[in-house]
Design goal:
heterodimer, A: mainly beta, six-stranded mixed sheet, B: mainly beta, four-stranded antiparallel sheet, globular
Chain lengths: 112, 114
């Protein structure tokens, strides 16, 4: 099955700087890659997603890039703010199968 | 946007009790619902995939007789943790999805077994 790895496990950034989280996946058939943000004790919330027919997608301060050849995708957060502090999970799934394989999560801490 | 409601949000009960958790898609009919378990500081672990009107598909290592899943309608799935023990204490989260749309998660249920 699909194996998703996520690095680094913890990331601390100064407010206003950029944060980048990278994930790799193993199944070349995977074609859908969402990113979820989870605050302590709360539900994971979808913040951005990308499909394999697109190399990059941006939504205000958040962007995701996908490299199908290398089988990795990254989350970019610019101009970080304290409210960006949370755990971020990447995931991958294949066409026709909504079953998501999650990475282990990345704790992002934005230092004011 | 898509709203998924999960109830109850918190359960504290004695060992041996069975606990039922409900997951509802409020503004859409979900083709599939998923049940996850999340231990502190860990990722979401998929327990089972539930489709309306059919038996749930359980992940390897998840006991189907321990974690009973019923998917009675396109908007409701239930997870029953039978004869719960302290090691079953965890954060249980459901998600619902329509066709190839993104998964939307419920608020989760924090289960504590004494």
């Amino acid at each position: 099955g699909e194996n998703v790895e996520q690095h680094p496990s913890t990331l601390s950034v100064q407010e206003g700087d950029s944060a980048v989280i990278k994930c790799t996946y193993s199944d070349s058939a995977s074609n859908y890659f969402p990113w979820y943000k989870q605050e302590l004790g709360k539900r994971p919330q979808l913040i951005i997603d990308i499909r394999s027919n697109v190399g990059e997608k941006k939504d205000q301060r958040i962007a995701v890039t996908l490299n199908k050849t290398a089988k990795h995708f990254s989350l970019h957060i610019t101009e970080t703010q304290p409210e960006d502090s949370a755990v971020y999970f990447c995931a991958a799934s294949t066409a026709g199968n909504n079953r998501l394989a999650f990475g282990k999560g990345n704790q992002v801490v934005v230092i004011p | 946007g898509a709203v998924v409601s999960q109830h109850p949000s918190r359960v504290i009960c004695k060992s041996g009790t069975s606990v039922k958790i409900e997951c509802r898609s409020l503004d859409f009919q979900a083709t599939t619902m998923f049940w996850y378990r999340q231990f502190p500081k860990q990722s979401l672990m998929l327990m089972a995939t539930s489709n309306e009107g059919s038996k749930a598909t359980y992940e390897q290592g998840v006991e189907k007789d321990k974690f009973l899943i019923n998917h009675a309608s396109l908007t409701l799935s239930t997870l029953t943790v039978t004869s719960a023990h302290p090691e079953d204490s965890s954060f249980y989260i459901c998600s619902a999805v329509l066709s190839n749309q993104p998964q939307h998660f419920g608020d989760g249920t924090r289960l504590s077994i004494l």
